[in-house]
Design brief:
The complex is a heterodimer of chains A (325) and B (335).
Chain A lengths: L1 E4 H15 L3 E5 L15 H5 L4 E3 L4 H12 L4 E8 L7 H8 L2 H4 L9 E6 L14 H5 L5 E3 L4 H13 L4 E6 L6 E4 L12 E4 L4 E5 L3 H14 L4 E5 L2 E3 L3 H11 L2 E8 L4 H12 L9 E5 L8 H7 L3 H13 L1
Parallel strand pairs in A: 2-3, 2-4, 4-5, 5-7, 6-7, 10-11, 10-13, 13-14
Antiparallel strand pairs in A: 1-8, 6-12, 9-11
Helix pairs in contact in A: 1-7, 3-4, 8-12, 9-10
Chain B lengths: L12 H26 L14 H9 L6 E5 L3 H6 L4 H9 L22 E5 L5 H15 L5 E6 L6 H13 L3 E7 L19 H4 L8 E3 L3 H16 L5 E6 L17 H8 L3 H11 L4 H23 L6 H4 L14
Parallel strand pairs in B: 1-2, 1-3, 3-4, 4-6, 5-6
Helix pairs in contact in B: 1-2, 1-10, 1-11, 2-8, 4-11, 5-6
The chains are: A alpha/beta (325), B alpha/beta (335).
Chain lengths: 325, 335
Amino acid sequence: MAQLTFRESIARGIAQEMRRDESVVLLGEDVGAAGGVFKGTVGLLEEFGGVRVRDTPISEQAILGAAMGAAMTGLRPIAEIMFSDFFAVCWDIVANEIAKSRYMTNGQVTFPLVIRSGNGGGLRFGAQHSQSVENWAMMVPGLKVVVPSNALDVIGLMAAAVRDDDPVIFLEAKVLYSSKMDVPDGDIVDTLGSAKVLREGSNATLVALGSMVPRALEAASELAANGIDCTVIDVRSLVPLDTTTILREVAATGRLFTVEENPRLCGWGAEVASIVADEIFYDLDGPIVRITTPHIPLPAADALEDLAIPSVERIVTTVQKSMNS
Amino acid sequence: MSNTKIAPANSDLAHKIAMYRSQFALRQFENRAYDLFLENFVKGTSHLAIGQEAIAAGVAAAMRPDDWTFATYRGHAHTLARGVPMAPVFAELMGRTNGLMAGKGGSMHLTSVEHGMMGSYAVIGAHLPIACGAAWSAQYRGTEQVAVAFFGDGSTNIGSFHEALNFAAVWKLPVIFFCENNLWMEYTRTSDVTAVANPAADRASAYGLESIIVDGNDADAVFDVTSAAFARARAGEGPSMIEAKTYRHGGHSRADPGKYRPDDELAEWMAKDPIPRYRARLLDAGVSEEEILALESEVDAEVDLATEEAKAGDVPGEDLLLKDVWADGGASWRN
């Protein structure tokens, strides 16, 4: 057992898989000698050498194109896009090429690759280095989308993503990089498409993702002290989506609140809400409520960014207001 | 059926005959594809390589069977040149289950991994970095395989071209960037919107590469220059870029009659048509007219047979619709 930060867990998860499988290689800007701008790949160059851990030019299309070409010819690349906002400069490779080529070729090619990226706000970086882009990826058929919320899950889900034969977008909430957790020794392998119930309650179900998970848990503690007992689900994977767990837990409490860092429109919570409304409408005791960032670019100022992204306080008051109305 | 595939060989007579056969087959395939549009057997769009066959034939002849081709949406010829039979390609254009991808990709995405045809890419420039990735894989595994990315003159002005060139040069990747400069983008002359006269070759020096220009309507010249690039790549000397001057006889796509091109320019290039040019070369080399005619009628019969075989294919149904999004063969996104 060791206490690891979220960022240390990334390197540990990657190292675990690189030791196991020589076809796993890592590429990206500053991932080698510098150990990653967020220090998520510290020690990998030293352990695995420059042939398997390669620094690239600032060329996101080249990085992801190379990952795709390598994946279709026998390697299992892990590519880093430093900030998920930068997917906007290489989205052709992601959405048109990687996501669609297996289907278009009637299954002739597979893309066992992982694209990791620092995602989301909270670091006061402004509108172009703070976006939560999980929904960009979720809406493209052919991409799996994984968003861990803690250090232990980072290792296990990274291993599962690397071992998966489909392309996985692995989004790391930047605001969680310094969070710590006790992690057992030895290999850890998790399962894609499995949500986790982190807390069982009887009055309402909070469904959260990534950076919103610790906030939802804290909000649930406060709500419990005020007589509202909440279940908290960590979605962990948007594609595949564990609708079984979500539907079961929402049906049990009769109320659904989604907690989403993304701007309002077309957030993953809207899809969850739609599935719940379609399939267990008569188990609901009240309206479905989505708690999201407003539909705005994220502002840089700390005071404004804190107002924008759902806070523990906003979760608590939103749930209380809805439950008491 | 591998009549369009020619084995790498020296420039002996058998090689020349095979080279002619390949080009002629590509031409006749494209002519038939055009007829099939007119008869409404082929829906959607298609981009014919009529006039550019010497490039597909010449490069493919220089490749090892385990080398990789990455083509553009103008990819019929490159696909056939790797030895893919005609029938599944016709069937793919027609959207039938006996198509190369069972109708799920269509004309612009022809792929046959078993032939080293790693895809036809329909967004300009996308496949240049992807070819780099295949080359990286070959380099990593020490297989001496080489990836070839074909692209048009218009692709030289998109970002991924420059990203791929720099990336390949820095990583010394075994990849060949092959520009088929047919002078026109879609409706715009490339030289009108490009800072240099030779859109690929004049950019080579920016990436530390040799500037190489070849007559793209001469299959032997293409074969020779490409063979040298393959040798460099296999020797670990990194990427090459080749710019071949050529011309498409028709418009950009099915929807384009190509009327914007001056008559004298068209006439000049029709006179440089690679097929009669190579045919004359065969006659000069001592192949008889009768032998050539026999070869041509064999190819025509092959085209006819492949057309009928393709037409006999089934129309795809719902079983294919939800197949192969994922590696497990399905399309499920939830449990």
